[in-house]
Amino acid sequence: MLRFALLRILSAIPTLLLVIVLAFLMVHAAPGGPFDDERVLPPENARNIAAAYHLDESLPRQFGRYLSGLIRGDLGPSYHYRDHSVAELIGAALPLSLRLGLLSITLALLVGIAAGVFAAVNNNTATDRLVTGLAMIGISIPVFVVAPLLVLVFAVQLGWLPASWSGGDAGWRLLLPVVALALPQIAYVTRLTRTGMIDALSSDFVRTARAQGLGLLSIVRFHALKPALLPVVSYLGPAIAAVVTGAVIVETIFGIPGLGQLFVRGALNRDYTLVLGIVVFCAAVIILLNLLVDLLYGFLDPRIRQP
User: Fold this and answer.
1) Residue ranges of the alpha helices (H) in 30-162?
2) Rounded Cα–Cα distance for residues 71 and 31 (Å)
3) What's the angle, vertex CA 158, arms to CA 153 and CA 161, rounded to 5?
4) Which is it for the CA torsion 276, 278, 279, 285, positive or negative?
5) What angle do CA 174, 288, 14 make, to 5 degrees?
6) What is this structure's pTM?
7) Cys-Cys link to 266, which of 189, 203, 235, 271 (CB 3.0-4.6 A)?
8) 251-292: pLDDT as tens digits
9) CATH T-level fold of 86-304
């Protein structure tokens, strides 16, 4: 198991480096600069600002300087938010994004696994077809459509919930964003759980358990659930990536001052270091969580471990 973990860690390093290189090149390929929205400065002052932030250096030298800072854990200063480092801005926005993501993933797993098991137990019935149809609808409708629809129905027409996050600590203010972010993942988890549970219920060890007189609830709980969840565990990595990318849209629509909204502001302000810092941070988190998913999958299914 230790060698399996080390191999996964070593394989993650080139992936993270490739993300850093591509993000750096794309950010610097965008038209304009981080100080274009300032008043017209005298040429000497403009040169001094560029020298202070090392923007007058060649692109390879800027990348080497940035990579050197990353190795030391320094994400650099923000070009737009003066007197603030990128690490400070990410640290201030992270708690809300983390809360939103964890609640969304938890809701998706709880509802998706329950719905998938329920559909598999009632396979080829009207209930199964209803659950499968709803899951297909959830997969087909993107987050940027779901979120405004939820606002229109529950905030504008019914008036049950606020249309945006207003800075309060009440959990119900995050209800619509959490549901909007979780709905597509609920659909995916439902379909994966249903397929895994159908396969598990048709396996030989389940038939043996039925022959021994065990009830359906005991079979599902103690025998079929663990192998049925293997596809769900393997999907957790892409699910987390989808939640991170979807959070950019959801936080912007609902006005949540998290990493997603900070990323959008950084892109609009051409804040190179802020955009790069958020991309690198999110990529590192996704790679780490994918590593944990691989380890969990290896624990549940020892056959995939490296010898």
Assistant:
1) 43-52, 59-71, 86-121, 126-140, 143-150
2) 28
3) 85
4) positive
5) 135
6) 0.76
7) 271
8) 888 888 888 888 888 888 778 888 888 888 888 888 887 777
9) MetI-like fold (1.10.3720)
